[in-house]
Design a protein that fits this description.
Blueprint: H1 6-30, H2 34-61, H3 68-83, H4 96-119, H5 125-149, H6 157-178
Helix pairs in contact: 1-2, 2-4, 3-4, 4-5, 5-6
Length: about 180
């Protein structure tokens, strides 16, 4: 039962939040309507904080403290920060500060997934799927950044964002079947 597995409760709360708040904001965010960009980003940011909370809650139950969630945050956030100084490559415009904050948060979320993944190699397949899902979610958001802010946009950005996003959600969803 769910009461016997607190980690399932954490993920269940995260999915509830995702479907109530995160998914409905994806449409205006995905269609690049300028007036919804910052509100959409705030909902996505809150969703990542919920996922980070879930992973940190699971940390006590399942795996020990790892450095990857901090390392991934520093790498993704710092690369975004550095790229903001090269407007011929990435143009964040007036969204520079929120995008950089978002990048550090996304990196932390993906790093938590990486911690979970590395702690469970050869272990429970459900936790491995959850870790891969969170890490791929980070990759999806990094590609999303390229889609919105790269000066020379590529045709493959939108389909790759969608593909990685749904693969991540699938893996996170399938976690329940294997723990």
């Amino acid at each position: 039962t769910l009461q016997d597995k607190p980690s399932q409760n954490y993920v269940l709360y995260g999915f509830g939040y995702h479907f109530l708040f995160h998914a409905p904001t994806q449409q205006p965010f995905a269609h690049e309507k300028k007036q919804f960009f910052i509100p959409g980003m705030l909902f996505f940011l809150c969703s990542h904080f919920v996922l980070i909370g879930i992973f940190l809650g699971m940390r006590n139950e399942i795996f020990g403290a790892g450095i990857h969630f901090i390392l991934a945050s520093v790498i993704v956030g710092t690369l975004t920060l550095i790229s903001s100084f090269f407007p011929k490559w990435m143009d964040y415009g007036h969204k520079k500060v929120p995008v950089i904050i978002y990048a550090y948060t996304v990196g932390m979320c993906g790093g938590c997934g990486l911690d979970l993944l590395l702690e469970n190699i050869g272990g429970n397949i459900g936790y491995i799927m959850l870790g891969f899902g969170a890490f791929i979610f980070m990759i999806s958001d990094c590609i999303l950044c390229l889609k919105y802010f790269k000066v020379n946009k590529k045709k493959w950005h939108p389909p790759l964002v969608t593909t990685t996003y749904y693969i991540a959600l699938y893996l996170i969803s399938m976690f329940y079947l294997y723990i």
